[in-house]
Amino acid sequence: MQPQVLAQNATVAILDSHRQVEENVRRLRQSGFDLSKLSVVALDRHPAEQVVAHYGVGGQAKYWGESGPFWTEMWGSLSGWACLVLPDAGPILVAGPLSGWIVAAVESQVVFGGLSALGAALYGLGISKGAVLRCEAAVRMEKLLLIAHGAGEEMGKAREILKNE
C-alpha cells in the first residue's frame, strides 16, 4: 500500500491489488463504517484476446472477465457503478458514489485546471490538486484507489483502518 491521500472529509488509499481492496473493505465493514460512503477506482485492463463485458441483470451490475468476481462483488456491495473511458487514462471502472460524481463532472463539463473527470470528482471531495494528480497517476500505473468520505469522526476511523494495511 502506498501513502494515503488525506482531505478533511475524505481519505484515499492507493493499493496494489484487488485482494488489498477486498481486505480493507472487509475491515471497514466490520468496524461499522457506512459502505455507502466508500468507492473503488481502477483501470479496466485485460488481454486483447479476452472477452470482457460490463452489464446489468435484475438491477445488479455484472463484470465478465478476469476481474469478474472482484468487480461484481464491489458493484453489489457499494452504491453506484460506472465504466468510463478517460483521456490519458483509458477505461476505468468505479464502484460506489464516486461514480455519480464523475458522471456529473462529465455531464457538466467541469474542468479544474486540467484535471480529468476523475480528478474533478476527487477535487470536489476536498482533496488538494497535488494529491489528485498523484491519484490520477496511480490509476494510470494500474493501482487501485479506495476512497472513503464522510464526517470527521468517520474519517478518523477509516484513516486508522486504512493506515494499518
Describe this structure in words.
- The structure is a single chain.
- With 165 residues, the protein is an alpha+beta fold.
- The chain is 40% helix and 28% strand.
- The chain has six helices and eight strands, in the order ββαβββαββαααβα.
- It has helices at 18-31, 68-77, 98-107, 117-124, 129-140, 152-163; strands at residues 2-7, 10-15, 38-43, 53-57, 60-64, 81-86, 90-95, 144-149.
- The strands form two sheets. The protein has a six-stranded antiparallel β-sheet with strand order 1-2-8-3-7-6, sandwiched between helices. It has a two-stranded antiparallel sheet with strand order 4-5.
- A hairpin with a 2-residue loop joins strand 1 and strand 2 (10-15).
- Helix 3 (98-107) crosses helix 4 and helix 4 (117-124) packs across helix 5 (129-140).
- The longest helix is centred in the first third of the chain and has 14 residues, at 18-31.
- It is globular, with a radius of gyration of 15 Å.
- The model has no long low-confidence stretch (mean pLDDT 84).
Helix and strand sequence: EEHEEEHEEHHHEH
In total, the number of strands is 8
Shape: globular
Q: Which band does the percent of strand residues land in?
A: 25-35%
How does the helix and strand content classify structurally?
Answer: alpha+beta
Percentage of residues assigned to helices: 40-55%
Low-confidence stretches: none
Roughly how many Å is the radius of gyration? 15 Å
Biggest pleated sheet: 6 strands, antiparallel
Taking all residues together, what is the mean pLDDT? 84
